[in-house]
Every structure is written in structure tokens, then in C-alpha cells.
Amino acid sequence: MTQHPSPGAQGAGTSPIRILLADDHALVRRGVRLILDREPDLEVVAEAGDGAEAIALAREHEADLAVLDIAMPRLTGLQAARELASLKPGLRILMLTMHDNEQYLFQALKVGAVGYVLKSVADRDLVAACRAAMRDEPFLYPGAVTALIRTYLDRVRHGEEAPEQLLTPREEEVLKLVAEGHSSREIAELLFISVKTVQRHRENLLNKLGLRDRLELTRYAIRAGLVEP
Questions:
Q1: How far, in Å, CA of 37 to CA of 151, rounded?
Q2: How far apart are the C-alpha atoms of 102 and 108, rounded to whole Å?
Q3: Mean pLDDT in residue range 178-182
Q4: 3-state secondary structure of 93
Q5: Which of 10, 14, 79, 114 has CB 3.0 to 4.6 Å from 41, enough for a Cys bridge?
């Protein structure tokens, strides 16, 4: 009798799925890598400690899948996902997070993530999520599916449209870096733009948000979930 491989398993001679892993906690990265590397069809080829490093490593390494933490310094996983989707259109993206949070979930889907996995159950869900991503299938934990359905039904019931995003993606990136204390020159180097462009974005942020200075920008970034207090 012919035996068929289990779903998601690689056939003989097939290269493993190459994974870029990004999380700002080294112990978390180690634990996640242990989960992934024990599977014959999965291989972590690069590790990053923040979103900006993840983008840099994506330029250097051929990866099929990026597994990104949401809350990271310099660039969040959501911001990195948006950049990676533009830089590497074929790269699949999974968000790995401790946040069972509808706002983060919807933002993750909006930036192109194909899956949303909670760290608390990563040992159960992560491997299946990686394989689903490579089949172009979405992977959401049960609570996330419930949230999506509830939000959709609420919008239909009330005839509401999704609100327009106040800030552009680039303005959001600059805001996060300003709030983290980076200088205009450092921000320019991180985002590969000129210092003058950074200064223009800062002025636009102050005008658009009705704020006066860096301190007020930082407070806004905390409220918006771009940086942790």
C-alpha cells in the first residue's frame, strides 16, 4: 500500500521552509527556534532582535517565511511586516505575539500577515501555522476568528465603514522612532531617507496630530501602541 506524507511534510529531496525569526527577547527566540528546528521541513536561517534588523536580514538571506513578534524596538513587527511585504512580495508573514488583542489582529491582517499565533500556545500552533502560510492558507487562533466575525457583523448591523487611517505608514514609522529617542540623523539612516525628509515628516506629524513637541509625540505613540510605556 502506498503511504502518503502527512499534510505539510516535505517530500524527499525537497528543501525545508526557510524562516526569518524576529523577537527582541533572546530567550523567546531560542524557544521558538527549538520548536521550529526540530521539524525536518522547517529551518530558521536568520534571527533578528528588532524590526529594523529583520528588514536588513531579509535583504541578506533568502527566506520563505518571516515570523515576527509585534512589540519590538525601532520598528514594530507590524511596521516591519509592511516594509517586508513591499521589499519581498513573495515572503509570507506570520505574527507571533503575547497579545490576544483585536486591534493588533486587524492591523496584522491589514499589513499582509497570513497568520496570527499566540506565544502562549506556540508549541501547539506555530508549526501548523508555518505550514499553512506556505500553502497560502490563513491561520488564526479560535478567539481571533470569533473577533473577526463579531466585528464584521457589527459593521454590517450599524452600516459602519472602517475609519481612514490618520497617519501614513511612513509617518507612523517616524513617530515610533522619535518616541524611542532617535535623532533625525539616526532615523534617516534606519529608514534610508534624508534628514530633511525626516524633519518634514516630524513637522507633518505635529501639524496633523495637533501636538507641540517630542514629549507630546511620545505620549501619542504610547497611546497608539507603537511603543511600550
A1: 36
A2: 10
A3: 93
A4: strand
A5: 10
Cell 454590517 appears where? 156
Helix (H) or strand (E) holding 44: strand 42-48
Q: How confident is the model at residue 2 (pLDDT cuts 50, 70, 90)?
A: very low
Taken as a whole, the chain contains a residue count of 229
- Backbone conformation region of residue 180, classed left if phi is above 0, alpha if psi is from -120 to 50, else beta: alpha
Strand partners, 117: 96
For 31: left if phi > 0, alpha if psi spans -120 to 50, otherwise beta; the answer is alpha
The C-alpha cell of 42 is what? 522547517
CB 29 within 8 A of CB 56: no
Q: Spell out the alpha helix ranges (H) of 5-121.
A: 26-37, 51-60, 77-87, 102-110
Find all residues with CB under 8 Å of 217, minimum gap 6, and list them. Answer: 175, 178, 179, 202, 205, 206, 209, 211
Model confidence, pTM: 0.68
Rounded Cα distance between 42 and 10, Å, is 9
